[in-house]
Amino acid sequence: MKKYIQHLSSFLTLPTTFLSRKAPISLVVSIVLIVFSSNLMFSQLNSGTFEDMKQDFYAASGNSEKEFEIATSYLAKAKKENDAAQIVAGYELFVSHYSHTKKAISYTDSIILLTKNTKLEHYPAEGYLLKGIQLYYNSTYNDALTNFATANDLALANKNLRQQISIKHYIGLLKNVSEEREEALKIFQDNINFIHENDFQEKDSEQYLKSLFALADSYNKNRVLDSAEVVHQRGIKASLQHPNKYLYPWFLTSYGITSYYKGNYTKGIDSLLKATKLLKNNEKSLCSNYLYIYKCLEKQDKTEEAIDYLYKVDSIYQKKPKVIFQAREAYELLNKELKAAKKHQKQLEIIEKLLVVDEIITEEYQNLGKKIVQKYETPLIISEKETLLNEKEALINQLQDENFLSEKKVIALVIVSAILLVLIFYFFRRNVVQKKRFNALMENYEQKKVQKEKEKAEKKQIPSSEKVSVTTQKEDIGLPQEIVDAILIKLEKFEDTHQFTKKNYTLTKLAKELDTNSTYLSKIINMTKGMNFAKYMNEIRIDYAIEQLKENKVFRSYTIKAIAIEVGFNNAQSFSTAFHKKTGINPSYFLKQLENQKSESNI
């Protein structure tokens, strides 16, 4: 290619030579030469077979410019010959060239569009598979799963075993993302067994290495370390025998992780550092390496050196948001280290980053399962009182270190101390008030519980023919009694079956579910419950939250965000506001007091 560009460049310099003498003639000659040279260059680029061009493309691995050049020529040749199969192959070269980027996804869309209504073998299943893979590596997990499901249906219909193995492989990877680790391990074990039984390791060596690596990694995640070590050694040997040493850096990384879990920290660091040199363009793997290098160094009491690797993860995340899960772990570890070192200002900066990351994970990845949302939700680490006392201690220490205290400094110290004492008294008094409110809330809860059980017992004893209408003692609503009674019975069932825990309930939606209209329902709620619909929904959700927190140990382990979603609120803020409005205390304080009660009762 460069030879032809140089050849063309020599012609492009000709016009400057002739312009001073015979401009019109020289211009015509130059244009003819340029056209001739361009056609010559294009014909030379397209003179090789498609197979030759493919081999050249893969031989140029690592040379991005040459890869692009060959892929462009390949696609141009395919389109010129109007060969659908080769056009698809050209798009696949571009998918490979732009792999792990959003641009690769656009080429997979072109493959799907081109092959949907054709009879090309393996398509459009291969297009959906490739798209799922690229979406996975761009952290768009839900869309990836959708495309894998479509590809799997087509692969099963066509009895394409290679595609089924690959799809199963990536579904196993998605299982790991959602922390269904045992299920993922079973998938990878089945895949490897199938590959060996059908001699697939020779037919598709790269898929074999992928499956072998996934199995080794899965053994790590499930802490089956001896098996992990055996599979890693097999994988490293097989990858070194591959022409391109396929997955060799990743086997080194995973072997380093196995060494860490087995307590061989020096060996682990050695493997991880070797892999790091080969993974400079793969941010996720690089961040994973840095996290485990930190862990190995920390185990060797090399804390200062270890922390540098956590900041490297932070630095990558600022440029590449797709490493969000690795960044979250780095922030958690940094928070622990900075807290231990009493570097409060830096710790608060990391906490802010941690909270932002948690919010993103909660919003974008919650469909992968509630467990992952709960795990990545972070509680407030430094309370108001602790912050206040830290500031006070820092101020006093600063003043004590000075050699001379001027009169103004003494006055300032007295004023600051007085302010701090007032604030401490305020927080102390607020705590007393909140404790009283908590005790009253618990007493009221127990009374309601007893009353509810009593009412249930009485209802069972009274024949239905003798039951008095619920609204006979209420003010007249202006509606037929039978309609009111029917709606109240349905409303009671709505409460008893906890349907209100669904999010985004509106008056109109509930009225439709109860086979009435919103006007009737609004009137009945106002007159029988003594409040409007919005307040009524908040009240029963808060009552249910209190009941669950009091009686359900698992519920108490949830974060405020998870509790809010569980009882029907859209977010933690609206739940906390409604909880405080009803009880006079925050849900975090209520949870803390409940835990204190449980701890005291277990002593």
UniProtKB/TrEMBL annotation:
Keywords, ordered alphabetically: Coiled coil, DNA-binding, Membrane, Transcription, Transcription regulation, Transmembrane, Transmembrane helix
Residue ranges of domain HTH araC/xylS-type in the record: 481-593
GO terms assigned for molecular function: DNA-binding transcription factor activity; sequence-specific DNA binding
Domain of life assignment: Bacteria
TM region positions: 23-42, 410-428
Pfam families, sorted: HTH_18
PROSITE patterns, A to Z: HTH_ARAC_FAMILY_2
SMART domains registered for this protein in UniProt: HTH_ARAC
Stored InterPro entries: Homeodomain-like_sf, HTH_AraC, TPR-like_helical_dom_sf
Coiled coil: 324-354, 382-409, 435-462
SUPFAM superfamilies per UniProt: Homeodomain-like (SSF46689), TPR-like (SSF48452)
Name of the protein: Transcriptional regulator, AraC/XylS family protein
